Amino acid sequence: MKTILVPVGSSKNAQSHLQYAVDFAKAFGAKLYVIQIYNVYTKAGTMIKVDHIIERESMAFLESHIASVDTKDVEVIAKTFKGKLVDTIDKVCDALNVDLIILEPRTNSIKDEVYLGKTSGKIVKRTQIPALIVPEGYVYKPIVKILLAVKSAVIRKEGVLKPLLSIKDKFKAVLNILLVKTPYHNSGDFGLNDELQSIITNTTMAESPTTFQAVLEHYKNHSPDLLCVVRRHRGFFSKLWEDDIILKKDFHSSNIPVLVLSGLK
Q: In the 8-state DSSP scheme, what is residue 170?
């Protein structure tokens, strides 16, 4: 893991979140890009050009934000971009060869009952970039136990496990898997390939309407430091993703980081 991206909003958690990202990046010897994306809407007939003003203010904010944390000799680079959120994130990650996005659940200051806000929700739901969602105020610590929750362990996409393997290897973490049999279960869904089989310590099987519900029922039994789930078109967060927002009352494991991988297939 060489390049990590941190989108910055205006939440009260922004400073502690950036400190976590710095500490995480240091563990991997990774470069950290701290970015802010802005869009400009002007009224018809307006002659004033404000792009350069917003860009300058955005860059000044990022530089001040970075100066507020202990960078610990990590290479931290501030960049601003103009454009639509998801499209710009995709292009930036591709151009910078980003391995992981570290997200705070709420990049803007919104209601306390919300776990994953609209901005972070869009990034997680509408891109295929591996993302680590870090709870508000969470202090960095080595990851000892990981729980991977899937309804199908069939892997067809090359390199999809790379972020998970990097984290497991770096911290020498124990990796357990929760295989969830849903009403859409297919024969062979629980067949672990050699790569996955070789890194799993314990396997738990559950039957539940959704992977999400199975995690809520079982994650405390595993006491993981990291929950790992997989993006699907109608996947882990689908029931709560209709408006890109997830409420804390619907996601009770919001006190641990969540690694979201791109789809396995």
A: H
Partner residues linked to 223 by β-bridges: none
| CA–CA gap between residue 208 and residue 206 (Å, rounded) | 6
String of DSSP letters for 13-80: THHHHHHHHHHHHHHHT-EEEEEEEE-----TT-----HHHHHHHHHHHHHHHHHTS--TT--EEEEE
**H-assigned helices in the chain:** 14-28, 51-67, 85-96, 118-126, 162-171, 194-197, 211-222
Of the candidate CATH numbers 3.40.50.620, 3.90.850.10, 2.40.128.110, 3.40.50.2300, the domain formed by 145-261 belongs to 3.40.50.620
Same fold for the pair 3-133 and 145-261:
yes
SS3 120: helix
For residue 1, what are its two tokens? 């893991």
Report pLDDT digits (tens) over 44-103. Answer: 555 456 778 888 888 999 999 999 999 999 999 999 998 888 889 999 999 999 999 999
What is the band of 253 on the pLDDT scale with cuts at 50, 70, 90?
very low
Choose the weakest-confidence range: 111-120, 206-215, 253-262. 111-120
Q: Which residues pair with 247 in a beta bridge?
A: 114
Both tokens of residue 262?
A: 């791109």
The CATH homologous superfamily for domain 3-133 is HUPs (3.40.50.620)
Domain locations along the chain = 3-133, 145-261
Which pLDDT does position 232 carry in this prediction?
61
Task: Give Cα separations from 54 to 46, 48, 142, 239 (angstroms).
Answer: 16, 12, 38, 37
Closest CA to 209 of 182, 179, 236: 182
